[in-house]
């Protein structure tokens, strides 16, 4: 898809009015930043930030056997969910590698919502549609659904400033959701997010998003709420060590080597990829995803080679790859994620990052780099 073919969310005019820098992302024209990545990053950590994530995909399954279809297609156990509860999970192929990471929402036993990544929407829509044939009704509701995320320690204070606040929203438990009316618009509010902070993600009708967006920014202005672009979204999720599809996970990685083994419930019964993952589980993974801090002067970036410092000079082939890297505005260090051989994946192990031809020392560290304390 060329830049000329890129789609726009219903909030595009709002981004332009706020002087956002717009870039092409996963087939969409999206705001990368407004006032600056570091500035926006700190706004989310200290107050609240508002994100347009309407490019994500929303898939709906309904019917008597919808629950069984969903559970068969994902690695986590969805059978324990109650109405109004969600769960993070992976969906794998038969090889046990990751098709996408998802959040699955149980509205009722016969009504399920699956949110997938924008870059994988077509693939996942087809995947769930095929599995639904003769079992349940399937609808891809992505074109009719807008999604905004309000994240940060003051997120719920911002919601309370609306003209019609729903007091029940403030009592939502993590990974629970409810229908509500916000700014006069019917919404579904979920206590989930992708920043390492508390907050909510709000689903609404596509055309209702601009009014909701403006109400949240206007009502939250005295509390410091700011519009946030994809740039700060990436540094926030990196500090919290949240995987990004296409970086930490893809169809070459299993959930087990990516540190997402906790999303794989082998005991729940059959699911796509189970047999392959069982075989993988029987032997130690050849590589592991690690978090690291740069010791030398340099910034790791996606795709940079990771090298063994004991290798001869000139260096032998890389032993791993950096999947994500940047300065961490909150932690004050240059940080990264990447795959290393299991023997080199222990905390405290040093290695080299090939920063455009310069080998810079780094050390494996405990993750996450940042964790909210209250």
Number of helices: 8
Number of strands: 19
Q: Let me know the average pLDDT.
A: 96
CATH topology of one domain: Gyrase A, domain 2
Structure, described:
By secondary structure, this protein is an alpha+beta fold. Among the domains are: 3-54 and 144-239, Probable tRNA modification gtpase trme, domain 1 (Gyrase A, domain 2), CATH 3.30.1360; 284-365, Elongation Factor Tu (Ef-tu), domain 3. It is built from 8 helices and 19 strands. The strands form 4 sheets. The chain has a 6-stranded mixed β-sheet with strand order 10-11-12-9-3-13, with helices on both faces. Strands 14-17-16-15-18-19 form a 6-stranded antiparallel β-barrel. Strand 11 and strand 12 (199-205) form a beta hairpin. Helix 2 packs across helix 7. The longest helix is centred in the middle third of the chain and has 12 residues, at 121-132. It is globular. It starts with 11 loop residues before the first helix and ends in a 9-residue tail after the last strand. The relative contact order is 0.15. The model has no long low-confidence stretch (mean pLDDT 96).
